[in-house]
Amino acid sequence: MLEMIHEQDLSGSDEDQIARLLEDCFPSEYDGRSFFQQRPHCRLIWRDTRIVAHVGVFYRAVRLDGTLSNVLGIGDVATGPKYRRQGIATKLIDQALAAAPRADFAMLFGRRKLYDRAGFVSVSNPIRHTVMMGSKTGESVTESNEFLMIKQLRQRSWPSKGTVDLLGQMM
Question: How do 164-165 and 50-64 pair as beta strands?
Answer without folding.
Answer: antiparallel
